[in-house]
Amino acid sequence: MSCRSRVVGETAELRGASSAQDAGWWCCQRASQGRARELEEVPMSIVGGLDVHRQQITFDYLDTVTGEVTCGQIGGADRHRLAVWLGRFAGVGEVDLAVEGCTGWRYVVEEMGRVGVRAHLAEPAETAAARGRKKRAKTDRADARLARDLLVQGRLPECWIPPEPVLEARALLECYHDLRREHTAWTQRIHAVLFHQGAPSLGSDGLCTPAGRARLEQITATRLSPAGQTQVATALMMLQATETQLDVLRRAVLAAARRMRGPRVLAERLYGVGPVTALALVCWLGGAGRFSSARKAVRFAGLDVTVYSSAGKRSPGRLSRQGPGVLRWCLYEAGKTYSRASAPDHGYYAQVKDRLGGKRAALSQARRIVRQACHLLTELGDDAFAMD
Rounded to 5 degrees, what are φ and ψ at 111? Predict the structure, then answer.
């Protein structure tokens, strides 16, 4: 049947309401036509797709036994409402649902796992490319249907779903990276205020030493306007708060790196890789069977060089900058350590630096680190996530 129905019974439990309108979700069911090929290709009893947003989750799933398609929305995207909706699949058999790997996928996948539903995490860019050229307006229902169709046909570009300790470590690293960027931004604001009002620079000491801070206080009091003094005072307070929290986060990151086996192995065997970089490598490159070649790991990290320029709008030879920015930042900092004369590959670093500059030399070493780490993590497999 192709009717839109408001279901009162179980949906009212979502908000303790007496009607499906209060519960905030609706569903419709229709008979599926021309599904014979799909039924043969998919050994699942229920297969579907979800499109997750802050205000609602749109679903579209197919019962491969009866050929019936059910679609609708869950109003209010949170764990409780999703858990109540997933309760309909209890005892159904094999249930497979696909969701794009965008913000919000974590709790969706976790709730699926609690009720025994197999989760499939779709790569957003490749999923959009599989849609092809748009023939009509893109909607949430169309996205959910696309994920379901790709899963049915076995063409869903799936992402690796990390275990919970890896997700927690990733969250710490991302927060630490964000604070580092904020710290740099506030430091740059201070230098910009000094330059804008014609004050002398802080010199080589900068803001990292007590002498540099004392010089800044003197310049602020004698060379800046009242508004400029307020700007500098505000920036210094933000720097102090950021530095305090950075110390807390760094201790948490180091503790996580010490507990996990993979970061310890990488830190011991790779020059320039400290505990923070080693943890980032394990969190984003670790896992059995993640990459079939080290070249793919370099591409995933966003360190590969693009060679295609579309309509002359972008010159070739630039970084793709795809993948996690935290990992790319850590690798670049690790690559710069090869500027030391005692580094094992300092000769190669110096050669590239003379021809192309220090940044390109550091990026070349960063790619080497990724390739070496990929081989080590392939040997470790899932043991890289072992906790002591």
Answer: -70, -35
Distances in whole angstroms, Cα of residue 315 to Cα of each of 310, 312, 367:
8, 7, 21
Do 89 and 106 lie in a common domain? yes
Which 8-state DSSP code applies to residue 201?
P
Query: Is-contact 58 141, C-beta < 8 A?
Result: yes
Higher pLDDT among residues 316 and 196, named by residue: 196
Q: What length is written for the chain? A: 388
Domain count, the chain: 3
Domain span at residue 15 reads 3-159
Residues 6+ apart with CB under 8 A from 115: 83, 86, 87, 89, 90
pLDDT tens, residue by residue, 262-274? 999 999 999 999 9
pTM (predicted TM-score): 0.83
pLDDT digits (tens, 9 = 90+) for 136-193: 777 999 999 999 999 999 999 999 999 999 999 999 999 999 999 999 999 999 999 9
365 close to 388: Cβ distance less than 8 angstroms: no
- Nearest 5°: CA angle at 320, between 317 and 323? 160
Same domain assignment for residues 284 and 252: no
Q: Which of 229, 259, 289 is the last residue of a domain?
A: 259
Note the pLDDT of residue 313.
56
Residue that has been written with the tokens 């720097």 in this structure = 239
